[in-house]
Specification:
It is built from 13 helices and 13 strands. With 396 residues, it is of the alpha/beta class.
């Protein structure tokens, strides 16, 4: 998984900082569960009481603070950063909201701190959110909650960064960038599950630097002005958007579709509100000036609408995301329940592109039949069919 690669990266950070001992990970009892166990090949969990023969990776010198209290982890890391040292806070996505009020106060502290010329920069407070809501095959509804994004969007843009890397290489690049940054609150959303790798490392670094880009290898517009834009932010939305683009390429080859991926969420907002915001001309280069945009988003759709509200023609953004429809179910059924499956994205694209005649209607009926067949299949088998779970991007 992408997080296993981040685990290897963080292990190297631990190794290189061993002499200075100025980097720690705070984590609410979830390090191995979050696929970051490679770190324990380099250091241990901090523990000063006597240990028994069955205890693993516990030592007074350990630089992983693992305690099942998000409040304690947040307080530990805030204090540690204020001493001039460095760290990262991996946490299950649904439970990071437990420290929302603490982060709100730290955001106020950072704002005032940055206004004082005599204050030295602090290493950024970086959250790495895992066990995201789209893959809760066992834990279910209680573990589905992307609201921390919405909470942070209300903080000062000058200190806020939100990243939704689509694959392992972009995730590693993003973590590297965030750990080098100062005086920010960084939010990174990742997944523990194996996912496709879309970009080479060089491509990932360029994509992260841009914040958002057109994925021409996935677009079906021949370099022309598209009929509509399919956009995505987040690893699961990216996969479903590409699957929808592939459906449209196969079934409606005359439809011109541009695929845009967003990894730095704040580029969507106006530069008046956030330094990462794209200019209106750069925004139009990605999303066109007037074509409909079907946007698959990791979190609540309201977050994207909040960011694009003062862009030209914001009403053309049709955002699909988490709408509080959840249970313990299959991964694809979670998407269907929230209207963000590949078939529903393709249906929305056809309707928004105003395709004339029977072609569009026939495709919609076909995709709706596929959804009905999927419902019958998971009721019978308890799992997604291989054509869904085993889907891979195919070249033209």
């Amino acid at each position: 998984s992408a997080l296993e690669q981040v685990g290897l990266y963080l292990a190297e950070v631990m190794r290189r900082s061993d002499r200075r001992r100025d980097f720690r990970i705070v984590c609410p009892d979830e390090l191995v569960s979050n696929k970051l166990g490679a770190v324990l090949d380099v250091t241990n969990r901090a523990y000063v009481w006597p240990t028994g023969p069955n205890d693993e990776h516990l030592a007074p010198s350990g630089r992983v603070v693992e305690v099942l209290s998000e409040h304690l982890c947040e307080g530990f890391l805030e204090g540690y950063l204020k001493t001039g040292r460095h760290g990262i806070f991996p946490c299950y996505e649904a439970f990071v909201l437990i420290v929302d009020s603490m982060v709100g106060q730290y955001a106020k502290y950072l704002k005032v701190h940055r206004e004082q010329p005599w204050r030295a920069p602090l290493s950024s407070l970086t959250f790495l959110l895992t066990s995201e809501g789209w893959r809760q095959d066992h834990n279910g509804y209680s573990h589905q909650g992307p609201g921390f994004i919405n909470s942070l969007l209300n903080k000062k843009g000058s200190i806020l960064r939100i990243y939704l890397p689509p694959d392992a290489n972009t995730l590693v690049s993003t973590v590297d960038h965030c750990l080098r940054s100062t005086d920010y609150i960084n939010l990174i959303v990742a997944t523990k599950q194996p996912m496709p790798q879309w970009l080479s490392m060089d491509e990932a670094v360029a994509h992260c630097a841009a914040g958002a880009s057109v994925w021409r290898w996935a677009s079906i517009d021949g370099g022309q002005e598209p009929d509509l834009v399919l956009a995505a932010a987040g690893n699961v939305p990216t996969r479903e958007t590409l699957a929808a683009a592939e459906l449209l390429r196969r079934d409606l080859p005359g439809l011109r579709v541009r695929v845009v991926n967003v990894t730095d969420l704040m580029v969507l907002g106006s530069r008046k509100h956030h330094p990462h915001g794209l200019s209106d001309s750069a925004f139009a280069d990605l999303f066109t000036a007037d074509r409909p945009v079907v946007f698959a988003f990791h979190g609540y759709p309201s977050a994207v609408h909040q960011l694009v509200y003062d862009r030209p023609a914001p009403e053309r953004f049709h955002v699909k995301g988490y709408i509080e429809e959840g249970t313990t179910t299959t991964p694809f059924d979670m998407l269907v329940r929230n209207g963000m499956s590949r078939y529903q994205l393709a249906i929305e694209a056809i309707r928004r592109a105003v395709l004339p005649g029977a072609d569009g209607d026939a495709r919609i009926r076909d995709y709706e039949l596929r959804l009905a067949e999927h419902r019958a299949y998971i009721t019978r088998e308890g799992d997604d069919p291989l054509e869904i779970s085993g889907w891979r991007w195919s070249e033209r």
